[in-house]
Amino acid sequence: MAPSPSPAAAGLPNWEADPILAVEHLFMRFGGLIAVNDLSFKVGRGDITALIGPNGAGKTTVFNCITGFYKPSEGRLVLAHGHAPTAEELARVTLIGERALVGRKSSVYLLERMPDYRVSGEAKVARTFQNIRLFTGMTVLENLMVAQHNTLMVASGFSLKGLFGLPGWNAAQRAATEKAKYWMEKVGLTDRADDPAGDLPYGAQRRLEIARAMCSDPILLCLDEPAAGLNPRESLELNNLLRSVRAEHGTSILLIEHDMSVVMEISDHVVVLDYGTKISDGTPEAVKNDPRVIAAYLGVDEDAVEEVEAEIDAEIAAHSTGAHS
Amino acid sequence: MAVQLAETAPPPAKASPSSSVMAHAFKDAVITGLIALGLFTPLIGFETVIIDGALGLDYRPGTLAVMVGIIFVGRLLLNLTVWSPNRKPSVRSGPTIFDRAGTTIGPAVKPLLLAFAVGFPFIAAFAMGGMNESRYLIDLGILILTYVMLGWGLNIVVGLAGLLDLGYVAFYAVGAYTYALLATSAPINDFFAGFLGETFWANWAFWICLPMAGVFAGMWGMMLGFPVLRLRGDYLAIVTLAFGEIIRLVLINWVDFTGGGAGIASIPRATFFGVPFTAGENGFAALFGLQFNPMHRIIFLYFVILALALITAFATVRLRRLPVGRAWEALREDEIACRSLGINTTNVKLSAFATGAMFGGFAGCFFAVRAGFVSPESFTFDISAMILAIVVLGGMGSQIGVAVAAAVMIGGMEMLRNLGFLNQIFGGDFDPSLYRMLIFGFAMVAIMVWKPRGLVSTRAPTIFLKERKAVSGDHVKEGHG
């Protein structure tokens, strides 16, 4: 998928010109605790966007709101298939109280109105989890088949065609197997296809979770700390995998990550959270040099930032060579 | 220094173990014996007897000494052999001998069992020396197959979808009462008598009501499913348990509709697809030129339940390979991951409840036609517990394990009624069937200790690329309810 060229030429960054997801004034309160406080940011179509921040900043809460696992206290989450909606279109779908406006060329989904399974099934937002959630007792291939549930369910005539072995079902099953094979090849798990997912080493489980998410044909892939627990070589492979996912499938990627070698190297756009509010938003270069980010990460007063900035630059450079942050 | 220590340490250690092990084993056995003495003194040491019309105490020191002695010696022997520290720890990992046996003889087991099940009435008649003499065995076969079918039905809910259902007997009751009420209904009988003949409804009721019993039970499964969708684990178990009791209490108390505790009697018998098993000239025997024998109906019932059970097994095997079956298993493995993949877990749970309930309804309909009488007393919690025990002992999700467990549990319990020779050993007033629950309990504990995941603990994948490898039970989750 080619990024839309014309507005970008006008000097706007891609995420402003052609957002696939717009998070607008998102609030998430748990009793008296405000986990996410008036957060707004945009995710560009075809971009790799990183959401970073210190521990407890609310990153995973934002993810859970986007993917429908939490219902936000306030705010709007606009996901656009095709081109981004105009302000009038957006106002209309918001006011009529529908959860989506599905068109032939482009559709707009209001994710905060959708239950979790519709966010992934209809709006095509797939996600992975910080603590890996595979179907451990099922084989690698079965995990990838479950991910294609909705397509296969229709193809099996809601089990009736499949139960009596009618022809359409077998073809659909073969096509699903081919797709699973493609993704196993892609993440290097073809040899382990018939092994239970729980038997795989940690790095392979992370890759399988990404492959499983991709088998559901997402347009936006949300990864919660995909590099956690990976060694430097595996981190590098992950970078390549994510780049090829974007290049070959046009899938936009939103990721939470602590590993700065991954964040700085592959992201086009970085959003920094601290205590539930956005403190910085821009290209990796810009964010890296933002004194507020440095202050949040290292816990110094903003007044003192000037003094330690040189030190901090060295620190970040060290992180980006491969060490874990 | 460390090296020296390592070299000098072993000799004394070598000399001492046997004596220290012996001392330790003896000490442990003495402690166990004292605990047994404390426990058994009130339980075995005293006996209440009636002396001159009043209650008095009798003392049994001899029996007490024998019991404590057995415990002491048994513990000592176990300490010196099986639990001895000198015994090499088992280094066996991977599949156990059961699993290996399962994979090697597995392919042959199913056809053999199937052939045995099909030929069973003839084998029984041959072995007992006549059709009438084999009645007891064939009745037992029918009972076992009913439980096999119920076990396979519950297996969908508990074994595949991982939803703990303690009220499965409710669907069995719905199926049985569906048939009992419809078949004995005078208005329906009169309606068909008008244009299809007087005997139409009595002869065809079973075959028309069988699918309806499944549909009604499936609908009740959905009705149970809706309120419990948000519940998991213990909470789900309690609500399903309550549901099973509610159905039974409604059956008892709604006297006008269900006949209350007296039940419904003289339910029409099964027919050979409209041909009744009677001695008359329109009967089954006359039609096929056989001599009339009431056993024809029993043998026919055996084949009906066999067919129903096989349909259950076939449907389950097919459904497992379809997206809905994979979604059931995925739900058992991780519900949140399911939702992240666009699977509507509400529908998945409801479909599991409804499918499981439907097979329970078929079995209930069969129960009503076999017994010719239904009453709420046939649908107590004991039946739910028995079916669940069969599923758990057989290995959750395994077809063959559930079948074997049903045969062993139901057949085994029945066998205990017929151990007459034990009377010659223990005396005339010894009744082995009184020990059924004790032996049942021992069997459960033994299975849970040695095979905690049931007889067949491995899971067969539903699809494979190169080679179908059984998934070890260690990876398979049991579901959260």
Automatic annotation (TrEMBL), chain A:
Keywords: Amino-acid transport, ATP-binding, Nucleotide-binding, Transport. GO terms for molecular function: ATP binding. The keyword Aminoacyl-tRNA synthetase does not apply. It holds the Pfam family BCA_ABC_TP_C. Residues 21-300 form the ABC transporter domain. SUPFAM superfamilies: P-loop containing nucleoside triphosphate hydrolases. InterPro entries: AAA+_ATPase (IPR003593), ABC_AA/LPS_Transport (IPR051120), ABC_transporter-like_ATP-bd (IPR003439), BCA_ABC_TP_C (IPR032823), P-loop_NTPase (IPR027417). CDD domains: ABC_Mj1267_LivG_branched. The keyword Cell cycle does not apply. Belongs to the ABC transporter superfamily. This is Branched-chain amino acid transport system ATP-binding protein. It comes from Ancylobacter amanitiformis.
Automatic annotation (TrEMBL), chain B:
Keywords: Cell membrane, Membrane, Transmembrane, Transmembrane helix. The keyword Membrane applies. The chain crosses the membrane at residues 29-51, 63-83, 112-130, 136-154, 166-184, 204-223, 235-255, 267-288, 300-319, 350-373, 385-413, 433-450. It is a multi-pass membrane protein. The keyword Membrane applies. Residues 25-119 form the High-affinity branched-chain amino acid transport system permease LivHM N-terminal domain. It is found in: Cell membrane. Its main location: membrane. This is Branched-chain amino acid transport system permease protein.
